[in-house]
């Protein structure tokens, strides 16, 4: 297949491009800069210059592809309304040209905010609907197009998609631990996160566009529940620093923006995902990655 990938040089996107190429697919990646374009061509992919605001490029990439993997996001924490607007407009543009084609459209989302009192199931619908909602309601927007001739697939990511070179939440926790000279957890540390290795995530995305039915929700989750205290203890061991409890009211001060998330449980099941695609995670666990030095020895992706 010819696969159009947005976010193609990002943390998950770059692994996905490699996975798709290894499986024999042709990849066209959206590239915001010449450096990103060069990175893609060096891997054997084709670069399409543009960004999430360039709706014509998004339409062209989707129109000429056999499948689309949408991973890009502005991640502007200071302007969530703009993030949401951009996301919805971008998804609308791509779905517009995919309607009636039967082509796969794989869209990314997270587990946070779907269900608060338990692990999220693949059967749980996102409550975010419409332009003014989180991510512009793009998950439900995509799934609505399953009835309009698009093989829409949602891949929900664990809060930690980990591995060597990760610049996400765990990297921020390690940076806070270095700054504070202690590895902290919030309160009693009973909040829990799901986790998955980056390579397993890329493989799941590939399996999804190759064979998941329209309307499928997939969970990129290998470990369903790791307590935040266990994460902090692994970081403390890796950095050889004490592990301490941080009062909830001090979480933002201690951890920075990731403190808001580290005090929350964000977990999801993967039972239906495994059964649907025969997906079996094989990468290291989050604790194994942390203890191996993936986050503390200065390595990059």
TrEMBL record:
CDD domains: SDR_a7 (cd05262). InterPro entries: Epimerase_deHydtase, NAD(P)-bd_dom_sf, NAD(P)-dependent_oxidoreduct. It comes from the Bacteria. Pfam families: Epimerase. Residues 3-99 form the NAD-dependent epimerase/dehydratase domain. This is SDR family oxidoreductase. It comes from Streptomyces pyxinicus.
């Amino acid at each position: 297949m010819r696969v159009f990938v947005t976010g193609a040089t990002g943390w998950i996107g770059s692994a996905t491009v490699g996975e798709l190429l290894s499986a024999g697919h042709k990849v066209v990646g959206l590239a915001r800069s010449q450096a990103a374009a060069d990175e893609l061509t060096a891997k054997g992919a084709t670069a399409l210059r543009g960004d999430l605001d360039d709706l014509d490029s998004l339409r062209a990439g989707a129109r000429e592809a056999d499948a689309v993997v949408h991973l890009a996001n502005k991640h502007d924490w200071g302007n969530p309304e703009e993030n949401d607007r951009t996301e919805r407009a971008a998804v609308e543009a791509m779905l517009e040209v995919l309607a009636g084609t039967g082509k796969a459209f794989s869209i990314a989302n997270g587990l946070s905010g779907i269900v608060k009192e338990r692990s999220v199931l693949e059967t749980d619908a996102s409550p975010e609907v419409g332009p003014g909602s989180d991510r512009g309601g793009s998950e439900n927007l995509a799934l609505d197009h399953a009835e309009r001739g698009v093989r829409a697939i949602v891949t929900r990511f664990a809060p930690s998609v980990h591995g060597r070179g990760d610049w996400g939440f765990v990297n921020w926790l390690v940076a806070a631990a270095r700054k504070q000279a202690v590895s902290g957890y919030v309160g009693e540390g009973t909040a829990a996160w799901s986790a998955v290795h980056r390579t397993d995530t890329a493989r799941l995305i590939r399996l999804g566009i190759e064979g998941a039915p329209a309307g499928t929700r997939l969970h990129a989750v290998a470990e369903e529940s790791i307590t935040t205290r266990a994460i902090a203890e692994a970081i403390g061991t890796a950095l050889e620093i004490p592990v301490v409890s941080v009062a909830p009211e001090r979480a933002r001060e201690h951890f920075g923006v990731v403190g808001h998330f580290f005090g929350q449980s964000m977990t999801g099941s993967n039972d239906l995902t495994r059964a649907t695609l025969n997906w079996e995670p094989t990468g290291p666990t989050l604790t194994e990655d942390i203890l191996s030095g993936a986050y503390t020895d200065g390595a990059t992706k």
